[in-house]
Amino acid sequence: xxxxxxxxxxxxxxxxxxxxxxxxxxxxxxxxxxxxxxxxxxxxxxxxxxxxxxxxxxxxxxxxxxxxxxxxxxxxxxxxxxxxxxxxxxxxxxxxxxxxxxxxxxxxxxxxxxxxxxxxxxxxxxxxxxxxxxxxxxxxxxxxxxxxxxxxxxxxxxxxxxxxxxxxxxxxxxxxxxxxxxxxxxxxxxxxxxxxxxxxxxxxxx
Length: 206
Prior knowledge:
Blueprint: E1 13-19, H1 26-38, E2 43-48, H2 62-72, E3 78-81, H3 83-87, H4 92-102, E4 107-113, H5 114-118, H6 126-132, E5 135-138, H7 144-148, H8 151-155, E6 177-180, H9 189-194
Parallel strand pairs: 1-2, 1-4, 2-3, 4-5, 5-6
């Protein structure tokens, strides 16, 4: 499913995986499949962003990143979208507010890798995100310790759902978050770009 605003049934738990996906790669696919299993999600939506406000240089054209994402992420319960481009939002907190207004009867879970949790306190209105949206964190190689020692993890330690309680994440009122250690693939978008394997209009290898 590839529409900008996918259908969501009342009461569904939707995981949101946002990012520039510059380029999308097998690691994104892997954490998406793991998130579906680990957090009790009905669906996952990829939010391919127009630009990342924390990065100084712009990504490849949105149309190219969408095309590559749809080529590599093929799953009946995953939708690749350009929602943020249509909402006109720049920051995650804004996007979540807009989605809750558009889908008032849906439970959203924000998904991120452990590397993002380590620097989550730099995000705009990060506390507002934690207070309104359950967060599912998936470990990446080398990021476990820094993530668990991060300001966000320490401040919201009381709200952490450990182990299999993560399956209840989407049904749990915020603040709530779950950190799941999963076998990860040591691949990153920056490494792919550095090797010259990603260019406009080129789909990265699986």
